[in-house]
Amino acid sequence: MPTMHDDSLHTRAKAMRGAMTPAEAALWRILRTEPLKQWHFRRQVAFPPRYIADFCSHKARLIIEADGEAHVLGHAADAARDRWFAGQGYRLMRFENRHILTERDAIFASLCDLVARAPHLA
Q1: N or C: which end of the chain has fewer CB within 10 A?
Q2: Is the dihedral of CA 28, 68, 54, 58 positive or negative?
Q3: pLDDT of 23
Q4: C-alpha atoms less than 13 angstroms from C-alpha of 79 in its C-beta half-sphere
Q5: DSSP type of residue 70
């Protein structure tokens, strides 16, 4: 995503929260169940000056991305974005939309395992 002014980035994130894809909505339902709910995931989180994360738990230092067809090929922009988030201290997990919609139990299990290894903040 291109660099944006902070206000427009937050405005875009807010608009995206109101227009979730079916895969994002399914992933949001997963993230709102126990034990994942305790990690306080938020959706469409702005990270000025450049990026919006699909889902983020600041507590777990974890970003979850729901990737459509365009991301499956692993674009250089995704790699740069992933490095930027890592530089901010976040781990990043990507799930393909089709897997979110068809393998919800496996996605849930993967996420539970991942947050179980998250650093516990005081």
Answers
A1: C
A2: positive
A3: 93
A4: 4
A5: H
Residue 22: predicted pLDDT: 92
In three-state secondary structure terms, 54 is strand
Q: How far is the C-alpha of 21 from the C-alpha of 23, rounded, in Å?
A: 5
Q: Which amino acid is at 112?
A: C
* pTM, entire model: 0.80
Question: Are the C-beta atoms of 52 and 16 separated by less than 8 Å?
Answer: yes
Per DSSP, the chain holds a count of helices (H) and strands (E) of 6, 4
Answer yes or no: are the C-beta atoms of 69 and 98 closer than 8 Å: no
Give the Cα-Cα-Cα angle 98, 82, 93 (nearest 5 degrees).
40
Give 10-residue mean pLDDT values along the chain (122 residues).
56 69 93 92 89 92 84 68 92 92 94 78 41
Domain annotation for the chain: domains and CATH numbers:
6-116 (3.40.960.10)
